[in-house]
Amino acid sequence: MELPSKHLQAAVEALGSLPGIGQRTALRLALHLLRQPEGDIEKFSNSFSDLKKHVHHCASCNNISDDEICSICTDQKRDQSLICVVEDVSDVIAIESTRQYKGLYHVLGGVISPMDGIGPQDLSISLLLERAEKDGVKELLFALSTTMEGDTTAFYLFKKLKDAAINISTLARGIGVGDELQYADELTLGRSILNRTSYEGSISKS
């Protein structure tokens, strides 16, 4: 669309580059921002600049954090023997919202997807294997999306970890096949965590 201002055009293009934002929505947002006080716009802009500058990945679990180690990993009230393996930071947020899980996390940063050129070396799998070998870790809970890529990643991890002296479990299949974890409702996700099952048992039935 042709707009009367090159600056408005640039703002619309920037907003339109965000996932789920079409050109019409981007234009409405840009016009809304244009009507706001300059101080509010500056604060809005700085929040994203600070996001990029100050948010890091936790050196332990690969979750996002303002510090080197995230608040979940440093919380001694959480079960240090249980690690929930997820695809992305959004999955951590989804599981935390259920208030049913009290262990630690490990964020892989994606799933194995040869079609997209993503292999095991592109994920934080080596860090997970190191953590699994540490004293005190008793269970790994696979909480990956029930897609072909998610199942492929879970099976790869299982093969790498099956000889380790730890339990490997997976979410109960309350999550529909093909669903991404972050879109599951809190009740279903919470029950899937509480009713988790042996991963080896789940693949023997498939």
Mean pLDDT, nearest integer? 87
Q: Describe the strand arrangement of the main beta sheet, using strand numbers.
A: 4-3-5-6-7
Helix- and strand-based class?
alpha/beta
Quantity of strands, as a count: 7
Major beta sheet summary: 5 strands, mixed
Q: What coarse outline follows from CA principal-axis ratios?
A: elongated
Radius of gyration: 21 Å
> Helicity level, as a percent range?
40-55%
Count of helix runs: 8
Per CATH, the architecture of the largest domain is: 3-Layer(aba) Sandwich
End-to-end Cα distance, whole Å, is 50 Å
Classify the beta-strand content into a percent band.
5-15%
SSE order, one letter for each helix or strand: HHHEEEHEHEHEHEH
- How many discrete domains? 2
CATH class of the largest domain: Alpha Beta
User: Low-confidence runs (pLDDT<50, min 5 residues)?
Assistant: none
CATH topology of the largest domain: Dna Topoisomerase Vi A Subunit, Chain: A, domain 2
Structural commentary:
This protein is an alpha/beta fold and 206 residues long. It folds into 2 domains: 6-54, RecR Domain 1 (Helicase, Ruva Protein, domain 3), CATH 1.10.8.420; 64-205, Dna Topoisomerase Vi A Subunit, Chain: A, domain 2 (3-Layer(aba) Sandwich), CATH 3.40.1360. Helix content is 43%, strand content 13%. The chain is built from 8 helices and 7 strands, in the order αααβββαβαβαβαβα. The chain has helices at 6-16, 23-34, 38-54, 89-98, 125-132, 148-161, 186-194, 199-205; strands at residues 56-57, 64-65, 79-86, 103-107, 139-142, 167-170, 197-198. A 5-stranded mixed β-sheet has the order 4-3-5-6-7. It has a two-stranded antiparallel sheet with strand order 1-2. Helix 1 crosses helix 2 and helix 4 (89-98) packs across helix 7. It is elongated, with a radius of gyration of 21 Å. The model has no long low-confidence stretch (mean pLDDT 87).
